[in-house]
Amino acid sequence: MLLLAACTPTPPPANTPTSQEPQDVAEFGHVHDVQVDPVDHTILVATHTGVWTMPGPFGDEPVQPQRAGTGRQDTMGMTLAVDGTVYASGHPAPGEQTDLKAPNLGLVRSTDGAATWEQVSLAGEVDFHALSTATTDTGALRVVGLDSATSRLLISDDSGATWTPGATVPARDVHVMDADPDTVVATTPTGLQLSHDAGQTFTPDRDAPALVLVEAGLGSELIGLDTNGTVWTSTPGLDRWTAHGAAPGQVQAMTYVPDDSPGNQPWILIVTDIGLFTSRDLGASWDPVLGQETG
Fold first, then answer.
1. What is the pLDDT of residues 207-238, one digit of tens each?
2. Is 276 helix (H, G, I), strand (E, B) or coil?
3. Where is this region: Disordered (predicted)?
C-alpha cells in the first residue's frame, strides 16, 4: 500500500477561501434559484455546479460561499419546505448517473442542507425548472413543479412520491400560496396567471404587473420583480399592486423571508449579475451579501 501522508498538503484554515470557492457572484455562473433556511437563515444557491451555501447575511463575519457536500449536479430548480427539507431537480453532473433514460434528475431531496441527496421520483424522466411547496389543510406537503420539456405543471400531494398532471403554462416561475395551497401563481411572457384549483387551470391577471419572479409575502399577499427589476407588492386579494424600489443589476433569482418576529423585519434576497443583495425596505435600498456595493 502506498502511503501519501507525507505529501498531503496542509488544509487551509476554516476561514481561508479555496480556489473552488466563489469570490464573486460571476464565479457561480448562472444562478437558477436561491432559498433561505427558515430556521437559521442559511442561504442556498442553486447553480450549474451544484448547490452552494452561505451563512445568514446579518452576522458580523464575512460571508464566504461553501459547496454543500460534493454534489456538482446542474441544479435547475430548488425549493425549501417549511421544515427545511430541500427539494431540487435538474441534471446529473457530467459522467454521473449515466444509466438514466434521459439526463434528468426528476425530484431529489435533502434533509441536511443539500449536503447529500436522495431520489424521490421521476428519475430520468423530468427536469423541473421551477418548484414550490406548501402544506395542505390535511397536513400533506404539496409539491408543484414545472416540467421544462413540456411546460406542464405536475402536482404531488405526498411530498413528491406520486404526481398528477396539471395545466400547460409557459411559465418562468411558479409559486404555491402558503395561505391557500390551491392557489398557484405563474409568471409568463404575457403576464401573471392565477390558478385556484391547484394548477389544473389558469386565467390571466390582466391588472398585475409583468412579473418575472414571484413569491408569497406576508399572509396572502404577493411580492415579485418585473422585467425591469422593480419590486412590486399586492394587496391580499391581488386587486391592487404597488411599485417600490428597483434591484441592482440583472436579476437571476429571488426569495422573500417573511420574518416579522419581534425585533426583525421581512427581507428580500436577490441574485443579480453583480452580486447577492438583501433589502428590508422593498428595494428602496440594498445591502451586498456577496458582490459589489450599489452606491
1. 999 999 999 988 789 999 999 999 999 998 88
2. strand
3. 1-22
Given a cut of 80, is residue 15 above it in pLDDT? no
Neighbouring residues of 264: CB distance < 8 A, sequence distance ≥ 6: none
Give CA 87 to chain center in angstroms.
10
Mean pLDDT of 257-271: 81
User: Would you say residue 120 lies in a domain?
Assistant: yes
94 part of a folded domain: yes
**CA 206 to CA 48: how far, in whole Å?**
34
Say if 241 falls within a structural domain: no
SS3 214: strand
Query: If you compute the radius of gyration of the chain from its CA atoms, what whole number of angstroms results?
Result: 19
Distance CA 254, CA 232 (A): 13
Q: Which three cell numbers stand for residue 29?
A: 455562473
Q: Which of 178, 205, 9, 163 is nearest to 82 (CA)?
A: 178
Number of domains in the chain: 1
In a domain, 34, yes or no: yes
Q: 31-82 pLDDT, tens per residue?
A: 999 999 988 889 999 999 999 999 888 777 677 889 998 889 999 999 999 9
CATH code of the domain in which 80 resides: 2.40.10
DSSP string, 220-274: T-EEEEETT-EEEEE-TTSS-EEEEEE-SS-EEEEEEE---STT---EEEEEETT
Give me the residue label for grid cell 436522495: 118
DSSP string, 46-76: EETTEEEEE--TTSSSPP--EESTT---EEE
Q: Locate cell 456577496: which residue?
A: 290
Is pTM beyond 0.85? Reply is: yes
Confidence of residue 104 (pLDDT cuts 50, 70, 90): very high
